[in-house]
Design brief:
With 223 residues, the chain is an all-alpha fold. The chain has one domain. The protein contains nine helices and no strands. It has helices at 3-42, 46-66, 75-89, 91-99, 103-129, 136-165, 173-200, 203-209, 217-222. Helix 2 (46-66) packs antiparallel against helix 3, helix 2 packs parallel to helix 5 (103-129) and helix 6 (136-165) runs antiparallel to helix 7. The two termini are 37 Å apart.
């Protein structure tokens, strides 16, 4: 075997190994999201249970559609989806919110990052499995608007829950406005971050994750 063949074989082996390792880390990260969702369902925490189920659905859809267990969502996105749920179910979260002034703002920002990640994954999967095509600016705008829209429905759900079950999720109007403000900031930041994220991602990793055609609307139009 010549040197080119050996180099190609080594490169393929390294790519396959990296793909397997990334998928394993992603599945481990997904376990956090899964157990947090189960915990929310058991506690009848309906809003968070719905959030977890929707996030898990977006996670498994590429795996089911491609029948490839290694076509998993990047582990860093799975962690972003898990963080707000873990903060919510943590006993220490209530202690921190009572004693640390900026804790609620941080959790609101974490929630915004998570909602933006849902919007980004939805954008990817719309382009992977439907005829929907978006260029980069429209995709960033979609992530931002999705984040704001879901945040609005989220606060509406908390209001309905407070009215029906006597809970105190929405404390004051100022707290609600602060939450919406941090959601807007998080949506803008994550829209820009995910635009840069896909642009700088290597072609090999995009192909392994099923994102090879993301943002390439002009190339599709030539086909």
């Amino acid at each position: 075997m010549n040197d080119d063949g050996q180099n190609g074989g080594v490169k393929t082996l390294l790519e396959n190994s990296r793909r397997i390792i990334e998928a394993e880390i992603s599945w481990i990260s997904c376990l956090l999201l899964f157990f947090a969702t189960v915990y929310s369902v058991v506690r009848l925490d309906l809003l968070w249970a719905a959030f977890g189920i929707f996030a898990l659905s977006l996670y498994v859809l590429p795996i089911i559609m491609t029948r490839d267990p290694f076509r998993a969502v990047p582990w860093e996105m799975t962690l972003l989806l898990s963080i707000p749920m873990l903060l919510h179910i943590s006993e220490g979260s209530e202690i921190f919110s009572e004693n640390i002034a900026w804790w609620d703002d941080m959790t609101s920002l974490a929630m915004a990052f998570s909602l933006s990640t849902l919007g980004f994954l939805l954008t990817i999967e719309l382009e992977m499995f439907t005829e929907v095509r978006m260029n980069r600016p429209l995709s960033i705008f979609f992530v931002f608007m999705f984040t704001l829209a879901i945040s609005g429905f989220w606060h509406l759900g908390e209001f309905i829950g407070d009215s029906l079950f006597g809970t105190d999720n929405l404390t004051t109007n100022d707290a609600v406005m602060d939450g919406l403000l941090w959601t807007m900031i998080g949506g803008v930041l994550m829209g820009i971050v995910y635009g840069a994220y896909t642009k700088t991602m290597s072609k090999e990793r995009r192909q392994a994750l099923g994102m090879i055609h993301l943002w390439e609307v002009r190339l599709w139009r030539k086909d």
